């Protein structure tokens, strides 16, 4: 269950990163509010997952899910560039996440 909670926390990290971008420096109230709420829930779920997962594993996976999510959202919704090096970087991040999961005792 901790892994599922951690996954949702990572997805919420992607939500708050995207809504922060949309908030235009917290000058737009709607996206700014979504950012703050998603942050609170993301951090809260991370804390719950850390009750049974090692710190290094939980934090690394959480940030990795957020990084990959932001990468995909940037491409799909914001029209950011898809270059071979950016894709390679994303593949390396995902590879690291898989290794963290496989090597975790929990």
TrEMBL record:
It comes from Aurantiacibacter arachoides. Its main location: membrane. Keywords: Cell membrane, Membrane, Transmembrane, Transmembrane helix, Transport. Belongs to the drug/metabolite transporter (DMT) superfamily. Small multidrug resistance (SMR) (TC 2.A.7.1) family. Gdx/SugE subfamily. It is found in: Cell membrane. It is a multi-pass membrane protein. This is Guanidinium exporter. GO terms for cellular component: plasma membrane. It holds the Pfam family Multi_Drug_Res. GO terms for biological process: xenobiotic detoxification by transmembrane export across the plasma membrane. Signal peptide: none annotated. It comes from the Bacteria. GO terms for molecular function: transmembrane transporter activity. The chain crosses the membrane at residues 33-50, 57-79, 85-102.
């Amino acid at each position: 269950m901790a892994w599922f909670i951690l996954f949702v926390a990572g997805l919420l990290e992607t939500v708050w990163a995207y809504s922060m971008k949309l908030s235009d420096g917290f000058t737009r109230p709607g996206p700014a509010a979504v950012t703050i709420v998603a942050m609170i829930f993301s951090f809260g779920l991370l804390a719950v997952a850390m009750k049974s997962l090692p710190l290094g594993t939980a934090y690394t996976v959480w940030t990795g899910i957020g990084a990959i999510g932001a990468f995909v959202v940037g491409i799909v919704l914001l029209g950011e560039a898809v270059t071979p090096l950016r894709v390679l970087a994303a593949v390396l991040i995902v590879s690291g996440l898989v290794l963290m999961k496989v090597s975790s005792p929990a």
